[in-house]
Structures are given as structure tokens and as C-alpha cells.
Amino acid sequence: MSTPTNESLDVFVKGLWRENPVFVMLLGMCPVLAVTNSVINALAMGLATLFVLVMSSALVSLLRNVIPKQVRIATYIVIIATFVTVVDYSIQAISLEVYLALGAFIQLIVVNCIILGRAEAFASKNGIGKSILDALGMGIGFTFALLCLGGVRELLGNGSLLDINILGPHFEPWSVMILPPGGFFVLGAWLLLFSWLKERSERRKTEKEASHVG
Amino acid sequence: MSDDSLGFIFLNACIINNFVLSSFLGICPFLGVSGKYETASRMGFAVMFVMLVSSVCAYFINTLLVQLDMEYLRLICYIAVIASSVQLVEMVMKKYSPALFRSLGIFLPLITTNCAILGLALFQTAKGYNFLECVVYALGAGSGFTLALVIMSGLREQLSLHDVPSIAKGAGLTLMVAGILSLAFMGFAGLGS
Do A195 and B72 touch (CB under 8 A)? Predict the structure, then answer.
């Protein structure tokens, strides 16, 4: 039996882990790989995507009964593009350094499949409160995944985290980690780790069941 | 205006700064449809075609927006242009070449959310290319995308015949292979500089 609070909690939590957009659903891979060469870039990208995701989910959910079915995708894209333009100019005003580091990838949030995917799969069918919760969960899950990658890549590629040197002066940086191939390797390694953990827990479960039966 | 020669623009977009392996654009189709050689090459050519059309449209739209002093509308205009040019390509193909249309199937509408295409339009604006350079840049980026997709599909077809550890089946292994491929393309980095 699930109470309403439990249900909305579930809507929020599923984006964090069980349906994590990056590690489980493999959506929105381009920014995940491109901008995670340092923690600060990853954080900025994650927050920008979170903002666009929440705002466009809210608006799509409010307008879901007004938008004609045939032109809904085009309408969603225009809504998303509007918020991305807002974010684009805001980041430029807040920190030019981050803006230059992220480059075209802020504008490319428009074509991030997570946002259009949530608009189509969730916000267009649910009320505004639930849609915002869902968007928050997905956005935080996305930011978390970006930080996982950014942390590993900055630590190994530069010996630092958030520009603070951690591994000491004698550490020889693996410069491949901040170059493009590093993105593929680190994400691949995370996925391998997760599937290893999943397989191990499943094996334990079956062993437990077998010993119970035995 | 840039002073690169046309040949260098082509090589740059195709190999040195390969859209998929160095700039991380269009990763979704790269991971999604690179399982089979046939579909990969078809997808590559469809993307190349849409790139060419939308690059030309984006060039004219940018000229218009700059004249009207409304550059803040650039992103919205570009995405609208790309969506409609995909639609246009779909309609034209359906009318004149139903066989090709059927063989591309679902891939055509999916191209709209391919970030390589919007990325191409944004990059060519940022670099200030003129009309001819835009066309060459689009051709180079399209062939680079096709090249990456075809190489990857060849590798994956081979891999599917081999016995890999069960945890590595699926995306993890594909990403590792893509990383090695990207490492290989890094070798071109010094070219032309």
C-alpha cells in the first residue's frame, strides 16, 4: 500500500539511482563526456541542465492540455530552447570563465535527450507538482553522474579536486584523462563497476535463496 | 573571416577534430546504431545529408538575424530550422525515393535530436565561415561522423562474435572500445598546425 507522500518520494528518488539518466538509461551522453574534464565544469553543466529540466517540465506540464498532439514535439523544443537561451546568457553574465570552458555545450542542452524525454514521457501526462519532482530527481541524478566523472577525471588527470591539489607535487598527471579518450574510459569503467556490483548482488541473492531451499 | 583553406577545413572537421571522437557530438546515435555495419552507414549518410541542408539554412538565417540585430533568437531559429529540414528531407525522400526512405525508417526523425547537427550550425557561426566554407565544413563533419560510425560498427560486429566477460556485455565494453578509437584519432591532433 502506498500513500501519496510515498508515491511522490518515489517519483523523486527514482531519477537519482534506479533510473539514473546517465548510468542506467544512457541518455544525454554528449555533455556527460565532453564537459567533465574538471569538477567545476561538471557542476556548472549539471546545474544548468537541472534548471532547464525543471523549468521546461513545469511549463510543459502546465500547458499539457493546451498543446495540440500533432505539434507537441515542436512546442517542447521551442520551450526548451527558450530556457536554454536564458541559461546561456545567465552563465555568460555570472562567470565568463565557465562559459568559455563549456563552449557550445550550454546551447547544446537543447538537444539533450533527457529533457525532451522527460517532457514527452512524464511532464505531458502528469500534474505540475509531480513533474517538478520528477525533473528535480532526474536533474540531480544527472548532476551526480557528471560529478562522478568529473571527479575521477580531474583527480587522475590533474592531481586536484576543485583546483585544490590533492595528490601532492610528486604525482605525475595522467593527461589522457582530461583529453577526449579519458571521458570514454572513465564512463566505461563506471558502467563496468556498476554492472559488476549488480551481478554480484544478484548472485548473492540466488545463493541465499538456494541455501534456504537446501 | 577565417583564412583556412577549404581542404584544411574539410580535413579538420573530418579527422583532426572528428565530431564524434574528439568533440563528443552525436554520441547517442554513435552508441545506439553502431551495432550493424548496414544501419551505421545508412545513418551516416542520412546525417551527412541533413547536415548539409541545415548548414546552408543556418548560414542564411544567421546573416538575416545579424542584419536585424536579433542574435538572441539564434538558438530557437536553428533548432526550428533543423527540425523542419529533417521533415523536408523526409518528405522529399518519400516522394522521390521511397526505397531509400523505407531503408532509413526511424533514423530520419531521430536526427533532429542529434547534437552533431546543432553543434555544426553553432560552430560554423562561431568560426565565422562564409558560404562555401560552411558547405565544405558540413561535408567534412558529415564524412567524419560516417567514418566514426562505420569503424565502430565494424569493431562491434567482430566483438559480438567473441566471448567477453558477462559484466562487460553492453555499453561498458562499447565505451572502452570508443575510448581506444578516440585515442587513435588523437594521433591526428598535430596535423596541419
Answer: no
